UniProtKB/TrEMBL annotation:
This is ABC transporter ATP-binding protein. It holds the Pfam family ABC_membrane. The lineage of its organism: Bacteria, Bacillati, Actinomycetota, Actinomycetes, Kitasatosporales. It is found in: Cell membrane. Residues 40-326 form the ABC transmembrane type-1 domain.
């Protein structure tokens, strides 16, 4: 067995209990590792800001206990200026730390988005056949977007509030340790409440993001050009609107639940913290009445000021803890994508072919999409060689494995047994750049970007000149049509190319492939959905494209493969027949039966067209 052999990719089962929170938090913290220097500056600014802000109550104590009672105007002015200076310095430090922390947060967001997008680019084709496009878009847009507040501000808020709390508590202890104990008596209860609320919101957030993904998928599918056409022609527009409204209603419920989760409990914390000054005054009064040491007015006011200063960062710290737990649900969904197994990878020491001849060989190739689920192979023991510059046609009934065979050459899938060779080298040993340069694919499903004609063609060769683009369009029999458009090559093709007909889109795809100039060409039923006249024009473009290239044609209409050097008939994933067109007709086997069926279908189509012409002629006056 070849060392590359492996089973086809299947999506991993998701365990909602994994990863464990400590490990996940550690992984989140590693995202910030490249920005350690900037975060250190933020930490210094936060620490300095906290120390400066704590100084203000001590200045106030001196004003009340010393400057005003003793009538020392100079000292009073100096202390008042000091309080103003602390406010100014704290504000400046706050702006700077916000700037740096927001920049770091946005860079982390950028890194996450790019990492997810790059990971998805590496995923096998099977992943995208099993995953709704809207789900993928939701992970990148909604999930990462939902983390923005957490990533950009939570780290700074956490450090800032934690530093402020510690500095304030130390200052409170320095003023009066007994009042400090009274102030912190309920802190453990507050922490327990916030953790409860955080877990509750995390659960709801997971459900909310799933619902947002469902809605995104619904919008992507139903509001695409194809979705609109299908909905209107089937009379399902109202039904689709009703279905969307139901999904939106579920999201409303989850949003309300997320917003209100633990709201009363967190409000209780706010009420208690706001009532703490009254508790401090009450405790100070009881201490004095019990014969304890007197507390000066300045100390008492300064302490209450510190205690009120403690209120904001303490509540913010508890809220940050809730927000972090909520964001863990979003990070978990992103990490699920980052942890998806990538089966089709470039080898550690890849082979790079500078000059590509174009010989393609299938050596005892087996392939199964999901052998455990289906219990059967899609391709079984395929052996066939296409010499450089030669042509192979693959025909057979629907589901026989024709397209699958073509997918193995550019490594859209990897074989589960045997080898696919390009110029004698296993395609799994080649670097991706060599494979991309070597193999061009023109399929029945032509994809065009919502961009200009020129931009769509340049996707194959970004540095192509206008002359090269025009030459490729001429070879593909599409230049005259493009030139006749008001904007020429600057014409927008529309969503998925809907401003062009099927034959025109196919010729644009052929021009794009001509521009790339691959030595190996795969035509996957490139003309099967076209009418006879359009097929003729597209076939001329294909003939120009195929000249001098190794060509593998997946054929539905057998008229397009008569001149192939070699024809292979697939049946249930195995080679049933092989030979030239004349050899296979003389054998009078499966290929001959397919040709006869194709001929009957062509005659029926021609008769139908003739009948339509006859009907039209019956109503046309003779003198026209």
């Amino acid at each position: 067995m070849h060392p590359h052999e492996q089973s086809a990719w299947t999506p991993p089962a998701r365990d909602p209990a994994e990863p464990e929170e400590p490990a996940q938090v550690g992984r989140i913290l590693r995202l910030f590792r490249p920005y350690r220097a900037r975060l250190a500056v933020v930490g210094l600014l936060v620490g300095a800001s906290s120390l400066v802000s704590v100084a203000s109550p001590f200045l106030l104590k001196e004003i009340l206990d010393t400057a005003i009672p003793q009538g020392r105007t100079g000292l009073l002015s100096l202390l008042a200026l000091g309080m103003i200076a602390t406010a100014v310095i704290t504000s400046v430090f706050g702006v700077l730390q916000t700037l740096i922390s927001t920049t770091v947060g946005q860079r982390v967001m950028h890194d996450l988005r790019t990492a997810v997008y790059a990971q998805l680019q590496r995923m096998p084709l099977a992943f995208f056949t099993r995953t709704r496009t809207g789900e993928v878009q939701s992970r990148i847009a909604n999930d990462i977007g939902g983390m923005q507040a957490t990533v950009t501000s939570t780290a700074t808020s956490l450090v800032s509030n934690l530093t402020a709390v510690v500095a304030t508590v130390v200052a409170m202890l320095a003023l009066d340790w007994r009042l400090t104990l009274v102030s912190l008596l309920l802190l453990p209860v507050f922490v327990w409440i916030s953790r409860r609320v955080g877990r509750e919101r995390k659960t709801i957030t997971t459900q909310r993001q799933k619902q947002m993904a469902v809605m995104a998928a619904t919008v992507t599918e139903s509001l695409s050009v194809s979705g609109i056409l299908l909905g209107r022609t089937m009379g399902r527009a109202d039904s689709l609107t009703t279905s969307f409204a139901e999904e939106s209603e579920r999201l409303v419920d989850l949003e309300v639940r997320s917003s209100m989760a633990g709201r009363w409990r967190m409000s209780t914390i706010g009420i208690v913290m706001a009532a703490m000054p009254a508790l401090i005054y009450w405790a100070a009064g009881l201490t004095l009445q019990a014969g304890g040491p007197a507390i000066s007015l300045g100390t008492l006011v300064a302490f209450v000021s510190l205690q009120q200063g403690l209120f904001r960062p303490a509540v913010s710290l508890l809220s940050t803890g809730v927000q972090i737990q909520t964001s863990l649900a979003l990070f978990q969904r992103i990490f699920e994508y980052l942890d998806l197994p990538v089966d089709i990878t470039e080898p550690e020491d890849p082979v790079r072919l500078e000059k590509i001849g174009g010989e393609v060989a299938f050596e005892n190739v087996d392939f199964a999409y999901d052998p455990e689920a289906t219990g059967r192979a899609t391709l079984d023991s395929i052996d066939v060689t296409v010499p450089a510059g030669g042509s192979l046609a693959v025909v057979g009934p629907t589901g026989s494995g024709k397209s699958t065979l073509s997918y193995l050459v550019p490594r859209l899938y990897d074989v589960t047994g045997g080898r696919v060779l390009l110029d004698g080298v296993d395609v799994r040993d080649l670097d991706f750049d060599t494979l991309a340069r070597a193999v061009g694919v023109v399929s029945q499903e032509t994809y065009l970007f919502h961009a200009s004609v020129a931009d769509n063609l340049r996707f194959a060769k970004p540095d192509a000149t206008d002359e090269e683009i025009e030459a490729a369009a001429r070879a593909a029999q599409i230049h005259e049509h493009i030139a006749s458009l008001p904007d020429g090559y600057d014409t927008l093709v529309g969503e998925r190319g809907y401003r062009f007909s099927g034959g025109e889109k196919q010729r644009l795809a052929i021009a794009r492939t001509i521009l790339r100039d691959p030595p190996v060409l795969i035509l996957d039923e490139a003309t099967s959905a076209l009418d006879t006249r359009t097929e003729h024009a597209v076939q001329q473009a294909i003939d120009a494209l195929s000249a001098g290239r190794t060509t593998i044609t997946i054929a539905h209409r057998l008229s397009t493969v008569r001149d192939a050097d070699q024809i292979v008939v697939l049946e249930a994933g195995r080679i049933a027949e092989r030979g030239t067109h004349d050899e296979l007709l003389a054998r009078n086997g499966r290929y001959a039966a397919l040709v006869r069926r194709d001929a009957r279908s062509a005659r029926a189509t021609k008769d139908g067209e003739g009948g339509e012409h006859a009907k039209a002629g019956a109503v046309v006056p003779q003198n026209v």
